[in-house]
Amino acid sequence: MKSISLIQFLIEERRAGRINAELSLLIEVVARACKRIAVATNKGALGGVLGEAGTGNIQGEAQKKLDVISNEILLEANAWGGQLAACASEEMEDPQPIPDMYPKGNHLLLFDPLDGSSNIDVNISVGTIFSILRCPDGVTEPKAEHFLQPGTTQLGAGYVVYGPATVLVLTFGHGTHEFTLDREVGSFILSRRDIRIPEETGEFAINMSNQRHWEAPMQRYIGELLAGKDGPRGRDFNMRWVASMVADVHRIITRGGVFFYPLDAKIKSKGGKLRLMYEANPMAMIIEQAGGAATTGRERIMGIQPSGLHQRVPVFLGSKKEVEVATHYHVEADAAV
Ligand code: AHG
């Protein structure tokens, strides 16, 4: 079978009228930047890229060297092409404008440059997550407020997993597709078109160490999964937790499953652990486009009107039926109060 490169796929999407030339260029630039991040992550200790950067980000989290390097690679790659009006990143408090010397485009790019960075030093998969929005008409110098658009308005979303293989997963709202990096050729090649997540699953992902801090409906839901065949669900469930959302989501779009980062007493005041604009929304779009569901446990993630660039939300996503059961338990518990 003839292989289809990412560039060829993008040209076909343009011809089908699903994306324009600027969006196509934007994906090419992001993909090229991610290849550079893959090279940096693959070097590991030999590249001198492991360990702490000695700085903190806006969220008060210690930055790893590779967080900083990946952020710089994405910013630098996206500055000059003319496809963007501004970028926003987990690693920066405010959006980064496009320098005046370069032409500006009509798109806004948000990214988590290196998700799961606690896993870098132990050689476990990490990734990049990105979301693409339209810059509002008439805005030439986008500020944070111009990024605050619900996930339903995303023009595209994707992630790259830097694992045993480097894999790009992409959606423009017409299905979710996977591309695998051919390292010899240097190109991403289409490896799965129109991915479908099974509606039912027997596998869940959650950080069980937070169990005692969860809300009652989450305790009930996971309690029932753990009870297995002898419990109300009448079957055994398996558990996996990589602690890199990209890797957990990639497993789900490959063989099904559900992922939860629910609200718990420790993080309640922050609204959740994961960031809405550059983690939850792009993953929600990818999952929904593959036939799965994504909620906060109470509402559809992509329906949320964001109130801040770095806003956090609880995340339930994956196989539709399990997301619905867990969400139903929360909604039901709220209604009973
Ligand atoms: P970060 O962007 O800081 O690397 O966050 C990682 C996220 C996500 O990838 C993962 O699912 C979760 O945090 C892991 O959280 P725990 O440390 O609580 O397991």
Structure, explained:
- By secondary structure, this protein is an alpha+beta fold.
- It folds into two domains: 6-192, 2-Layer Sandwich (Fructose-1,6-Bisphosphatase, Chain A, domain 1), CATH 3.30.540; 203-336, 3-Layer(aba) Sandwich (D-Maltodextrin-Binding Protein, domain 2), CATH 3.40.190.80.
- The chain has eight helices and 17 strands.
- It has helices at 6-15, 21-43, 65-79, 144-147, 216-226, 245-255, 276-289, 320-336; strands spanning 52-56, 62-64, 84-89, 96-97, 107-115, 126-134, 156-162, 166-171, 176-182, 187-192, 203-205, 238-239, 258-261, 274-275, 293-295, 312-313, 315-318.
- It has an eight-stranded mixed beta sheet with strand order 4-3-5-6-7-8-9-10, with helices on both faces. Strands 12-11-13-17-15 form a five-stranded mixed beta sheet, with helices on both faces. A two-stranded antiparallel sheet has the order 1-2.
- Strand 7 and strand 8 form a beta hairpin.
- Helix 1 packs antiparallel against helix 2 and helix 5 (216-226) crosses helix 8 (320-336).
- The longest helix has 23 residues, at 21-43.
- The protein binds 2,5-anhydro-1,6-di-O-phosphono-D-glucitol (AHG).
- 2,5-anhydro-1,6-di-O-phosphono-D-glucitol binds next to strand 5.
